[in-house]
Amino acid sequence: MLKYSSPAKVNLVLEILERRPDGYHELKSIVQTIGLYDTLYFEPAADVSLDCTQPVLNTPDNLMLRAARLLKEYSGYSGGAKIHLEKHIPWGAGLGGGSSNAATTLLALSRLWGLNLSTSEVTALAAKLGSDVPFFIHGGTALVEGRGERVTPLRLLKPLWLVLLVPPFTGIPGKTRRLYSLIRPDHYTKGEFVSRALESLQKHGEIAPSLMFNIFDSLALHAFPEIEHYWRALKEEAGPGNVHLAGSGPTLFTATEGRHQAERLATRLSEKGFEAFATPTVPAPEPQAP
């Protein structure tokens, strides 16, 4: 049996550059794995099956099962695997849990089945499953471009402690589509936010909170008016700290000065009835090779 930890992520910077001829949007983002994990178990079996501690995710369309079927089709492997998912990352919350699980499935089954695939092969398969999946083949800190299929690992970010606030309306049907429908040409940027963050990362090994940016921040209140209460609560507790959506939300996050401040802030939010986590940024998970 193989045991893998499957991390969540946040977009420290997320820009939309233009609408592509294929109808998708051209992205430029700095993405970072964080210390919030699902745990996945894999063991050989005649067929592919999935059992999840979150019953609503036990469906034939689960991205992990799609990943396994895609890998079988690509490799011609005749066997299967029994997969068990212990779900800890809030699902449908903008933290990339499903994409992370799918990427981890590709990596784990490549190893379990002895396929000896290259990282580039697995990344290409990941791109067929979703925009966030290729990033999780690499993890750590990375520049993500295109639809998400172009991933460039970056210099390791100095450990940064974040506080996440998860509103109680995750798993919104069509959430990402709703946000993208609000994008207008005047929301497009030219990569300047990513460029400034990359310069800071190269010079100082960190991205200052003032350099973090998410294009969807300006659209969140239009897409999800109910998020305002949670945004205000995190802003009030975080003080002068900047608050951003994690990916396409509705999870919110703010950077702090360190572990103690993050844990105090998360505790205060929890005492007020919010679902909050203090979590550090983390490097690429092990094992990484397929």
Description:
With 290 residues, the protein is of the alpha+beta class. It has 2 domains: 2-153, 2-Layer Sandwich (Ribosomal Protein S5, domain 2), CATH 3.30.230; 161-280, 2-Layer Sandwich (Alpha-Beta Plaits), CATH 3.30.70.890. Helices cover 32% and strands 28% of the residues. It contains 9 helices and 11 strands. It has helices spanning 63-75, 97-112, 119-127, 133-138, 175-181, 192-204, 220-223, 228-238, 259-271; strands at residues 2-19, 25-45, 48-52, 80-86, 141-146, 150-153, 161-166, 213-214, 243-245, 252-255, 275-280. The strands form 2 sheets. Strands 1, 2, 3, 4, 5, 6 and 8 form a 7-stranded mixed β-sheet that branches. A hairpin with a 6-residue loop joins strand 9 and strand 10. Helix 1 runs parallel beside helix 2 (97-112) and helix 2 packs across helix 3 (119-127). The radius of gyration is 19 Å and the shape is globular. The mean pLDDT is 93.
How does the major sheet shape up? 7 strands, mixed
Strand content: 25-35%
Mean pLDDT: 93
Q: What is the H-and-E element order?
A: EEEHEHHHEEEHHEHHEEHE
Shape: globular
| Cα radius of gyration in angstroms | 19 Å
Residues in helix, %: 25-40%
CATH fold naming of the largest domain: Ribosomal Protein S5, domain 2
Terminal residue distance: 16 Å
Q: Number of domains in the coordinates?
A: 2
Q: Unreliable runs, pLDDT <50, ≥5 residues?
A: none
Question: What is the overall number of helices?
Answer: 9
Q: Supply the CATH architecture of the largest domain.
A: 2-Layer Sandwich
The CATH class label of the largest domain is Alpha Beta
Strand segment count: 11
Helix/strand/pairing class, anyone?
A: alpha+beta
